[in-house]
Amino acid sequence: MLGFLGGTGPEGKGLALRLALAGEDVWIGSRELPRAVTAAETVSALAPGASVSGALNVQVALKADVVFVTVPYQAQRQVLEEVRDELVGKVVIDVVAPVAIRKGVALAVPVVSGSAALEAQAILCE
Ligand SMILES: NC(=O)c1ccc[n+]([C@@H]2O[C@H](COP(=O)([O-])OP(=O)(O)OC[C@H]3O[C@@H](n4cnc5c(N)ncnc54)[C@H](OP(=O)(O)O)[C@@H]3O)[C@@H](O)[C@H]2O)c1
User: Fold this and answer.
1) Per-residue pLDDT reduced to its tens digit, 17-30
2) What is the 3-state secondary structure (H, E, C) of the chain?
3) What is the whole-number distance in angstroms between the Cα of residue 126 and the centre of ligand 1?
4) Model pTM?
5) Which atom of ligand 1 is nearest to the CA of 74?
6) Counting atoms of ligand 1 from 1, which one is nearest the CA of 98?
């Protein structure tokens, strides 16, 4: 079972759709249940017969064996701290790209740890 923390955005829904089409059981997470359910319905409509559900981030972290982090960099720490206990022993795939938008242009944000993924690993191991 695959879970997507903050899976209601374009990145989470895009990955969830493709993995659902590949036959995976996917759960889309959100801070708000209605947003998760709506996103799951959107993905389901594009993948008839696929297994796509929506739930709160913490429930997704609990259910899933493999968890994708698909939130903006600025939200990563808070989201991971909220589900740290649920992620113990799980595979976590972090697709977070630390960027800031300036005048419509995406600029890389330097991360002290070296990358958002390394920072996520450190947060989960604190
Ligand atoms: N690696 C790559 O090639 C690649 C490509 C594209 C994007 N990305 C990265 O993927 C991530 C997701 O991109 P996206 O465009 O889908 O992002 P997004 O739409 O801005 O955000 C995704 C979801 O994150 C949750 N979220 C937003 N702000 C939050 C906050 N302050 N606290 C907790 N949750 C929050 C929201 O879900 P709810 O409101 O439903 O909780 C939102 O729907 C970003 O880090 C982006 O840089 C990576």
Assistant:
1) 999 999 999 999 99
2) CEEEECCCCHHHHHHHHHHHHCCCCEEEEECCHHHHHHHHHHHHHHCCCCCEEEEEHHHHHHHCCEEEECCCHHHHHHHHHHHCHHHCCCEEEECCCCEEEECCEEEECCCCCCCHHHHHHHHHHC
3) 23
4) 0.96
5) 31
6) 47
